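Office hours follow-up: a student asked to see two folded examples consecutively, so here they are.
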Amino acid sequence: MFSFLPTRRSERTPLASTLGVAGASDIGRVRKRNEDSLSICREAGVAVVADGMGGHPGGDVASQIASTVATDVLSSAAESIGRNDRYLDRMTVEMERAVLEAHDAIRRRGEEEPHLDGMGTTLTVLACDPKGRDWVIGHVGDSRAYLYRDGSLTQLTRDDTWVQQQIDNAIMDPEQARRSPYAHLLTQCLGLADTPDPQVFTGRGEPGDLYLLCTDGLVGMVDDTVLTTVLARESAGDDEMVADLVKAANEAGGHDNITAAIVRVR
């Protein structure tokens, strides 16, 4: 059975009262341990998913470090920014800092514990302002962020993968890339020797928007049609939607760990 991640508790004055945030992580049906990590801070409007690199030492450690560091940096930033009108300017800078500090923290841990040297992880982070008006995303790897708006699903992030490069160069189409044995070959991640160049970008939210952050254990099992069908259920609560996404991935095979977070602008 998958588990819902408890919301990070805080004594801060709630900032994100217009936002609903829910998330869950599941080991899937094949893997023997869960190398995904999930962190949410409802008060700060922050959601984070990370997928430790399978086959590398300490993938679960790397993903946990990344999600914790990113959440802590952005939660503190949200508290200091408060309700002023410079949210995007400030949080864009803080988002890049959060991603790079997560990378540095993983590197330090690997130096301190040599058996963890070489560990790595993806990282996808969403921070929304208190009114759900503006958002900032930070991204490295092949976990994803989507926007569901007015019945349409849009992928916001670009996968840092070899097959995505082939799509960009018109060598593969998306379906060929999905079936490729190299579909999960990353071109960058957090934790390895090369410092990543994170995608950091912003957008304007609207009432009713729904953001989905997920690891490839979800999108590798179900396509956008399934995601859209689940997210379109207006009567469903956020926790129920997350549960249905995890269930759909497991019913399709559950070949990988599955993690999903939903942020809704009420």
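And the second, which I mentioned at the end of office hours:
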Amino acid sequence: MIYSTADADVVRPLLADFRAMYPRISVEYDDLTSTELYHRYLAETQLGTESADVLWSSAMDLQASLVGRGYALPYATPEAAALPDWARWQDRAWATSIEPVAIAYNRKLLRADQVPHTHAEFAKLLAAQASQLRGRVITYDIEKSGLGFLLAAQDARAWPAFWDMAAELGKLDAGYATTTAAMLRQVAGGAMTIAYNVLGAYTIAQRARTPRSAGSS
């Protein structure tokens, strides 16, 4: 039993390969948001009901919390030698990727000279194009997405002007979603102009799927 934040469509080839290699092992894969994953696992464990064998989540802080509180068992994987030191913690948690975080935009709705390349440029764009961007910017709902909360917390640590940008998002009636995929669909479809703090790998995949005439980037 796997609880995961990785979209089921993305993981399907990996699961197919595993089932081909280990046909005697039955695999059930539940695609959840990071907050759902965390709270569901805790609730089931505390109630003593059946729960996941593997938790695969993008919310690293919540994963680390579970390990630190004794919810993970050690496993000496034979693959450990191929992993860098930073990707392995106490033989209880492993990093499976390095994920860039990005801003996605619709080319048909935002001119090339307006595209922000830094946080500061993004904040400046929000203030300068308030009327055009009202209701047209989307980001993570940090109440419902553990990853969204983590990314916002890291932004606040790294960039002192984060809260000024957050205030601008509020003034623009920004939209909120629980997954990168949901945000990218709205940008690609033209309902939103910009998505803030989306996962880079998903963004590149969406761009490849979207006809250039649709204008996503």
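Two things to take away from it. The chain has two domains: 2-94, 101-214. The CA atoms of residues 142 and 149 lie 4 Å apart.
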